[in-house]
Amino acid sequence: MAGQKPPGREVTSLTRLIIVRHGRTAWNEGQEERLRGRADLDLDEAGLRQAAATAARLNRWAAGAVYASPLKRAMRTAEILAGPRGLPVQPLDGLVDIDYGRWQGLSLSEAEADDPELYGLWLRSPHQVTFPGGESLEQVRNRAAAAVETVLASRPEQTVVLVSHKVVCRILLCHLLGVDNSHFWQIQQGLCAINIVDIESDSPLVVLLNDTCHLKESGADR
């Protein structure tokens, strides 16, 4: 069973992070997908259904706090998750999406046309890219990791929900797994994916990764 402690291992204090990607927006759709970044988009109807299905799935874990990126799509997802628990959603700036700079709002084909060399580097070696007028993955990692460290310090031995964006979720998982940003593309994050990381004696243990079964089970993936 995922998360089961090995025989003979002493059980110490544990903090659980439930990291959730937000639900769908109009800019997440198929051929119309656009680089969202700091654009303050809200959930579309499908995104609202996805968030509701995720809230039902999270009922099995007793969360003590919910934090989210301050952008609408993350805050709205978090509000739906927090509602049944009667918890406030606390905005956390460190969880905000990557700044794509000049590329924000572009479709993937438009970004490639703008700078084919940079776009190719993004696909091959994302850790080497700084978006024109925007951020690098290292900058995202530094601020997101600092935000999580603040949460861990203030919420010891609690279960905490963090709602963020695809890039930030991937980078946080790289950080918690102790791997560098070159592994960015090796961590998939679907819409409203659930990830669980247990922090025991400052040692992270990933017990659930990119779980979207709740969307299929509820039909919210359609």
Provide key terms for this protein.
6-stranded mixed sheet, globular, 6 strands, 222 residues
Summarize the structure in words:
It is a single chain. By secondary structure, the protein is of the alpha/beta class. It has a single domain, classed as 3-Layer(aba) Sandwich (Rossmann fold), CATH 3.40.50.1240. Helices cover 34% and strands 17% of the residues. The chain has a six-stranded mixed beta sheet with strand order 3-2-4-1-5-6, with helices on both faces. Helix 1 (45-57) runs parallel beside helix 2 and helix 5 crosses helix 6. The protein is globular and about 50 Å long. The chain starts with 13 loop residues before the first strand and ends with a helix.
Annotate the secondary structure layout:
Blueprint: E1 14-21, H1 45-57, E2 65-68, H2 72-82, E3 89-91, H3 108-114, H4 116-124, H5 137-154, E4 159-164, H6 166-177, E5 194-200, E6 203-211, H7 213-218
Parallel strand pairs: 1-4, 2-3, 2-4
Antiparallel strand pairs: 1-5, 5-6
Helix pairs in contact: 1-2, 3-4, 5-6
> How much of the residues is beta strand, in percent?
15-25%
The CATH topology: Rossmann fold
Say how many strands there are: 6
Strands of the widest sheet, in order across it, are: 3-2-4-1-5-6
Task: Summarize the entry for a quick read.
The protein is an alpha/beta fold and 222 residues long. The protein has 7 helices and 6 strands; from the N terminus they run E-H-E-H-E-H-H-H-E-H-E-E-H. The chain starts with 13 loop residues before the first strand and ends with a helix.
